[in-house]
Design a protein that fits this description.
15 helices, 4-stranded mixed β-sheet, binds uridine-diphosphate-N-acetylglucosamine, alpha/beta, 420 residues
Length: 420
Amino acid sequence: MDKLQIQGGQKLAGTLRVSGAKNAALPILAATLLTSEAVTLSKTPHLQDVTTMIELLACLGADVVVDERMNVQVTAAQLTNLKAPYELVKTMRASFLVLGPLLARHGSAEVSLPGGCAIGSRPVDQHLKGLQAMGAAIEVVDGYVKAQAQQGLKGADIYMDLVTVGGTENLMMAACLAQGTTRLYNAACEPEIIDLGNFLAALGARVSGHGTSEIVIEGRPELGGCQYQIMPDRIEAGTYLIAAAITQGSIRLVDLQPAALGVILEKLQQMGAQIKTGDDWVELDMQGRRPVAVDIETSPYPGFPTDMQAQFMAFNAVAKGTATIRETIFENRFMHVHEMNRLGANIELHGPSMAVVHGVEELKAAPVMATDLRASFSLVLAALVAEGTTIIDRIYHIDRGYETIEEKLQQIGAQVRRVS
Ligand code: UD1
């Protein structure tokens, strides 16, 4: 099993290009099932999760061609199979996003329940409730969601009980081919939802309000093809900003949308980073200073993203002062705490959703284990400043969501290599 070996203590500096966003690419790939015409996606990130989604599309009968620059062409002219098997859905929850498109286009779909996940129970009740409101008959049999809408889906007013990114995406996609108008209330507002909405519009869908909590979609009988560029990954960008900042270094990121980073940039500034932004770039400079502790509480966009919580915990671990970190989105997203403490951090857990981080002056290398995607990178961040050589085991978690991690880190001066 691959491991990362990191020699801590290098001050990072340099320029990096931000990759396409995993969390935009996955729903957009699922949405290619809505049309029989060819769709070409550029800036698709080269990641394990994207490979899994491509395998799933192929298993359903779509024709997928990937060129050497990761332009992905999908033609779902005819689907030969309407069942998304457990083997593919269990490795990645986003596979569940094929339910809406399959059901809307073919009136029938069978998708494995995603099941439990390390960071929390993560139910799909809101996805199902919304599809039922659109007229689908749904039963859960032997771990599979079996959905039928032989007469097609019908537009509906849907009030979501909580803000869910995946739920909003599944229902947006389904509504594009429903008869009549769908209104999604309490919809998620994440930039990746805007990207999905823009992609659907490029296919010819009538969608408005994406990026606000009320999305309106007028269904159409069919959609066409398009060429589309996936938005830049704001979480990858935020993570590399911290990589430079935690070493008290500097970085310039290019090819990104600074506005989508929102509160991430604000928190970095509060912690002492000097930040400059332009149309498609961000520069960060810590000017050799130790960060100052800042409290964090996760919440749906535009609040602080749960996908940046672990990285900011690593940054706070070496800050001046004490920070409280509250996780409100997932109930079990502090698995990195014990591993960080093995590196010499001083973090106390107060129940499942609150951690108190007492900043220390120094971390020390130790063998640690990656637990989930973002948590894994928080260990990389800690290792970048730990004295000595840290080995991080189980890094397949990182490969699910960070493109060419060693190359990118080496490019800004980190001493990192993959070992087996
Ligand atoms: C997406 C992101 C993930 C991010 C998360 C929150 C993708 C591929 N993944 O995941 O990286 O961490 O948003 O920003 O885009 N919930 C329910 N019922 C539902 C659906 C969700 O109770 O039907 C709960 C979940 O258990 C969780 C919360 O709502 O506690 C948020 O989940 P959701 O926004 O749906 O996350 P994902 O779409 O799975």
